[in-house]
Amino acid sequence: MELIRKYAPHTKRIRFSVNGLYRNELLAKRLEKNLSLKSGILSVTASPMTGNIIISFDSSLKAEDIKKEIYKIKFNIRDTKDNFPVKQQAQYPWHIMTKKQIEKVLNTDIDSGLSTVEAKKRLNTYGLNQLISGNKPSFFKMMLNQVNNYLFKILLFAGGISFLIGDIADSIVIISIVVIESSLGVLQEYNAEKSLESLHKLTSPRSSVLRDGKISLLSSSELVPGDVVIVNPGDIVPADARIVECKNLETDESCLTGESHPSSKHDLVILKDDIPLAERKNMAYMGTSITKGYGKLIIVSTGMSTEIGKIAKMLNEERNALSPLNKSLDVLGKNITVAIVTISFSIFLSGIIRGKSFSQMLGIGISLAIGAIPEGLSTIVTIALAYGVQRMAKRNAIVRKLNSVETLGVANVICTDKTGTLTKNEMTVKEIRTLDKVWTVSGIGYSPLGSFYRDNVKINPKDDTDLYSILQYGAMCCNAKLIKKGNDWTVSGDPTEGAIIVAASKAGIESEEYEKIDEIPFDSSNKFMTVVVDAVSYKLAISKGAPDVILNKCSYFLRSGKAIKLGKINKNKIIKQNDEMSNKALRVLAVSYKILNDEDNNVDSDFIFAGLIGMEDPPKDEVSQTIEECLRSGINVVMITGDQKNTAMSIGKRIGLLKDKKAISGQELDKMDDDELINLIDDVNIFYRTSPHHKLKIVRALRKKGYIVAMTGDGINDAPAVKEANIGIAMGKGGTDVTRNASDITLADDNFTTIVIAIKEGRGINENIKKFLRYVLSGNVGEIIALAMASMTGMEMPLTSSQILSINLVTEGIPALALGVEPSSLKLKKNENAQLLDSNLYNYILKRGSLIGFTTLFAFKYGEAFRNPAIAKTMAYSNLVMAQMFNVFDARRAEMPTPISQNKLLVPSVAISIATLLATIYVNPIANIFGNARLSLMDWLIVLVSSGIISRI
Question: Active-site positions?
Answer without folding.
Answer: 417
